[in-house]
Amino acid sequence: ATKAPATGEFRRPLRQHSATDAGASLGSKSIAGWTGVPGANRWDCEWFAVDLLTVTGEERPDWLDDFLKQLYPGSQPSAASGALELLADLALLQHLKPRLQRAAFMSTAPASTDNLGNTYVLTKHYTNRWPGAALLMELSSILLETESHMTIRHEPRERNTWADDLANMHTAGFDPAKRWDVLAELRDTNVLADLLRYGRQLGLHLPKKEREQKRPTNLVPAGLARPAPGRPEPTGAKRQRQ
Length: 242
Fold this sequence. Notes:
17% strand
């Protein structure tokens, strides 16, 4: 019997080695990562590292407040790491988007419980945790748009030291000129901003009992804030904005 080839076998591999990581504590929510050609050293790699709690002013995209408010409130700070790591993967995918047309892409994720779970999340393209589900839908929309395939490989933390250092904001050895602005690249999203807005209004980040009690009475359609290109305005949209 013959075995059907996997999805990635139909595509041209992208010659990039990449890794992401994230950190969550009471005073910090960081995402970080790097990418470069196989065999590159730190100085040769493009990289990013940002503490989301320190972003202010015009650098702050519209969706960031909604995202931070929905990072599993009431849970331990470390419980937010799964969603933060998905955001780091999204940042990496968005940066490599121009190179992804009909290519297979593989990045690595550090070895922790949340990160290991993300390998299954991205394999199945499913998670019931919020706001991770919103991030996964944005990731999927980019993969569909670029006709590409992304695989996250579990990597032991002791072999993922570069990304771990960046997540702790230790940037020694990386070229400052090769740092990219993650939030600028993610300012305009396909579905993420609208999903996070709906999620906050519906209380999708809350425990089930609190979510049932919330029952929003004035749900603002996401389309009123950013109408979909080419679609007519919803009935009454212009009146509500006025």
